[in-house]
Sequence to fold (136 residues):
Amino acid sequence: MRFETPSRSEPADESMIPLVNVVFLLLIFFVLTGTLTPPDPLSVLPPESASGASVTHDAVVVLLSADGRVAIRGEEIPLDALASEVEERLADELSLGVQLEADRGASSRMLLDVLDSLREIGIERVVIRTRRAAEP
Fold:
């Protein structure tokens, strides 16, 4: 007499559990190790430029809004503290310079105040960020 043994196939749900575990572990890994860039505290619309070159170096980025507020790396600071903040962030590498992103509505007086603050601490290299003008 021969008996049929029932097949021992696993339900589809049990085969998915290891895959779900791996996905959750990867998700937790990326959440814990990833860093998000904080949004800029100031809304800055830089002026357009017909020429220029892209700059990629590790300079400190200074934002100057149309109403004269200044921010560095996501933190708004008073203009009086700009020199000390930049000096602190660049430490011994003042030669890296500063990238200045000024709003098109900022006055030339505000721009000169920022440049004077940077010159006080010996910054010689300031790159002014612009947007590429649209082709006519």
Notes: Residues 12-33 form the longest helix (22 residues). The mean pLDDT is 83. The longest strand covers residues 60-64. The chain has three helices and seven strands.
